[in-house]
Amino acid sequence: MLQTTGVALFIGLWALLYLIDAFLKVINGVFIYGVITLLQQSHAPFDRIYLRFLTHTGLSVSIGQIRWYTSCFNRMFVRIGSWKPNYLKIWFTLGVCFGLVAMLLSVFLLSLLVLNTLGKKPVEQQVLTPVMPGVNLPMNQICYYLMTLLICGVLHEIGHAIAAVREQVRVNGFGIFVLALYPGAFVDLYTEHLQQISPIRQLRIYCAGVWHNFVIVLMALLILVLLPWIMMPFYSLGNGVVITSVMENSAVSGPRGLSVGDHLTSVGGCQVKSMAEWAECIRHSLQGTASGYCLPLDLLHQQDIALGSYPTPAGYVECCSNTSNTHLCFYYHSKGTSDVQYACLPARTTTERLSCKLPSDCYNPNTPAVCVMPSLDNTTRLLRVLHKGRPPLLFLGHPLDLHYSVVLSDYVPSTSLVPVNLPYVMETFCKYLISLSGALALLNVVPCYALDGQWILLAFIELSLRSVISDPEMRGLIYTVLLLFGTILIGTNIIIAMFTLFVW
């Protein structure tokens, strides 16, 4: 229901934007016609306000798309493209090598994907997955996704523009667009200049975009590896985890629960020094038996407020009043009897005692003690979460509810002045850059209509086959067959990916 409402609002916003644009253009035309009619005698000046605004800003609106086009960056492209031309030649020649190798690798991977599907291999082995906000992309990470797409698209097109200037091809302009939900960029090159230069120079221009996408991947990987050293002056590692986000209305939210910035060091008696250890502690609490607590018998009798015990439909025994929110039912075995006994005890003070697994763990010759265990069903656990600077939190529920209620980071701030979630934001952003920029690089080099691979293939065929096959029609036939194969390959993979996402 929420997804349907979101789609309806999304379509409605685009329709409203398009109608407003059309309305202003019509009103502008009517207004101008009226001004011309009224002021014909005096020849007074007039202005097309809205149309002039669109022309001046470079904005344009169409169905499901808004774009911005400008030539204000042309001087910047010329300056960068004219700087150290020999170094830039080497740089973009490396891009040609990468583009050609990536084209072979992409065709191989996509072909293997189709063969795996036809061979009925498990879907989990597939490598191409479409990203759909609200379907397999969490809505709270959509900003990372859209910002990554925009950055990758802009740097991709800047690569084309700088390479074009280096190869003496005029750049007419640069633009950014939003198509439905997805942002992108484009560069407008002078076509006649581009067609007149040699194939190797064309390849430097065509491969520059995917080459820059690959460089983005390398830079993001480098930042991700160096992140602990980059953050070292402001954050510490290996002495716990810090909460960067708490799910609203979860079992641990609220004034007495966990909050952003809490420094967690232990859960259920298991020491936590990193996110990996946190996950291991949660797994251990799921698979292992529940821990008990050593309690002296005399203190047990003093604190016990149970008036009786009764079995519940879930299969465990309850001995506390339904109105009690500070006490919990525990069971234990007394020495000299095999009967199970129950006591309603204050949960907080009881869990502060030494933990135990067996009654023998609580043996004390001077003070008789028993090992009291929480009386709970098989999936519920009583976990004591220690966080510095605040009283321990007692969590009663399924451990996975605790695990999925918080977002954690290994980077614990050294002071309260530094933001808690900065390392998480940088780490997440780098991972999106690696994933999306790498995917754009590999997919864009496939010889397919409307992708860079279409022009890379054309220039490569002219470069490699012109001296072998002199007939241009034969080279054109080879180009058409390979381009058709790449287009069918991309289309087949898109169908498989969408089928996998929505049907499997």
From TrEMBL:
SUPFAM superfamilies: PDZ domain-like. The chain crosses the membrane at residues 6-39, 51-70, 90-115, 142-165, 171-191, 203-231, 432-465, 477-503. GO terms for biological process: membrane protein intracellular domain proteolysis; regulation of response to endoplasmic reticulum stress. GO terms for cellular component: cytoplasm; endomembrane system; membrane. GO terms for molecular function: metalloendopeptidase activity. It is found in: Endomembrane system. Pfam families: Peptidase_M50. InterPro entries: MBTPS2, PDZ_sf, Peptidase_M50. It is a multi-pass membrane protein. It catalyses: Cleaves several transcription factors that are type-2 transmembrane proteins within membrane-spanning domains. Known substrates include sterol regulatory element-binding protein (SREBP) -1, SREBP-2 and forms of the transcriptional activator ATF6. SREBP-2 is cleaved at the site 477-DRSRILL-|-CVLTFLCLSFNPLTSLLQWGGA-505. The residues Asn-Pro, 11 residues distal to the site of cleavage in the membrane-spanning domain, are important for cleavage by S2P endopeptidase. Replacement of either of these residues does not prevent cleavage, but there is no cleavage if both of these residues are replaced. The keyword Transmembrane helix applies. It comes from the Eukaryota. Its EC number is 3.4.24.85. This is Membrane-bound transcription factor site-2 protease.
